[in-house]
Amino acid sequence: MTELAQSQQPAQAEHGPAELVTRTPDLAERDPVRFQRRRVLIDNLLRFGTPVVILLVWQAISSSGLVDQRFWPPPSEIVVSFVDLVSSGLVLEAAVSTFRVLLLGYFGGALVGIVLGVLLGSFRKLRTALEPVISALYTVPKLAVLPLLLMIFGLGETPKVLLVAFGVFFIVAISTMSAVAGLAEGYLEPARSFGASRIQTFRHVTLPAMMPEVFTSLRISIGTAVLLVIGIEFVQGREGLGFLIWNSWQVFLADRMYAGIVTVSIIGVALQSAVTWIGRRVSPWAPRR
Predict the structure, then answer these.
(1) Reported confidence tier of residue 15, pLDDT bands at 50, 70, 90
(2) Rounded mean pLDDT of 155-162?
(3) CATH of domain 73-282
(4) Which H or E element spans position 73?
């Protein structure tokens, strides 16, 4: 022991005393409440300030004559056109028509997608049989199916609703199937150990675990539904926001066309925010960004 201690002393003298590492706590550690308030303020400034800056730059460029106002009217003219459309009732009438098709197709496709996704994720043989078919049909452009639906169901809302449901179904079904089939064995083993039935396991284990991914697919699919219903109204329709935008382009009313586009974007953001809000209330255990 004496020889070992003597051999360590020169090494300590050679390298000097051990360095003391100090670390100053940041704001998040010193004052979490203040840090969170500051973070929310910055996020809101970025979230709402960026569109305002873009609109101001657009207004300045368009008003200065650097771009052709026939194609790029200033936002101030678009706002005036939007107010006129609202006052005349055209936007409300078009929005009601679009909403009717959108919501019917969305809820129908989402419901069928969740049910089939749970079944495919729960039963391996069924998943093996149907997954290639679903994957193949998912890659088909959805608007390419519209002529077939028009031949079968004729003109009217039915082909529109079915096409929106068609697009929503695949996103929700594939995501739900992936969430159920990819459930970690560590979640299922305790339920089996306590003798839980298949229904009890689904209710207390599978359902809570799959909810975050399901609501993510619902949020993505609502945006897809908006794209589809507007595209359908471009191609086939005499009413709706898509027809309003397309008709405004045909008669060269750029300001009214942009007003319709803004209306669609507002609807899309509102619907996605609503789905996100519902998802946070239904599955509060899901991680947040």
Answers:
(1) low
(2) 86
(3) 1.10.3720.10
(4) none
